[in-house]
């Protein structure tokens, strides 16, 4: 069985296009990742398909759209519990057609690459997602060039857009629970772009390292899931630049204040308390989006 997974309905539409050629494919399923879903929601989709297949002995292969996006990151988390499942990235109609003709996954991927390459007269040079160390500007100020609240942490938007826009040299994930999870740490290490350093720290550990000047001269993108972690850093003396509230997944008791942001009463109280201390918050999904003042969005939706 093949599970096609993507941001939005790309996987669903790819399968639909394939079936226009092949007819109905009963051994294919799709997963569509949309806001305000989180990694846990995508993992549950995989689990439902895995448990619902007719033949429990049937091999399951997940084909994600991109290697470091949420569908792929969720697949890595899922595979930690189901090591019999295989994961590949690079979903396309050409690849799906090869799989539909019962070509083994690795062979289908090789065929797809060969067919793509045959149409290229001159192969483009491979470029790294990481900034060029020689061209990245020297940072003489606060090493935290951007602070982002994002329940998905390292995913497609962060790995491919924000790291480039910010000339990031290090991603710092601060989360007390992830530090103790081998599975989650492994997933983050898989998702981080080549050439960029990764630190996974507790709030206490991060504060100690930042305050000691350990990251001076670097360009650090700080990622947390919840504002409460930032409140701990501020209490420990960390000076934060304006904070980007990028993505907070829907949870029990939460209310949606933006397309990709859902907050609980506890979150709201934390945001307002930090704002009273002079911390600025804004909402910006991707670098090309306009920054929107977040506290006014938060309290406008609340009333």
Automatic annotation (TrEMBL):
The EC number(s) attached to this protein equal 2.7.1.191
Main subcellular localisation: membrane
Q: Which cellular components does GO assign to this protein?
A: cytoplasm; plasma membrane
EC class name: transferase
Stored InterPro entries: Bacterial_PTS_sugar_comp, PTS_EIIA_man-typ, PTS_EIIA_man-typ_sf, PTS_IIA_man, PTS_IIB_sorbose-sp, PTS_IIB_sorbose-sp_sf
Cross-referenced Pfam families: EIIA-man, PTSIIB_sorb
Locate the PTS EIIA type-4 domain: which residues?
1-120
- UniProt-recorded name of the protein: PTS system mannose-specific EIIAB component
From what organism does this protein derive?
Lactobacillus apis
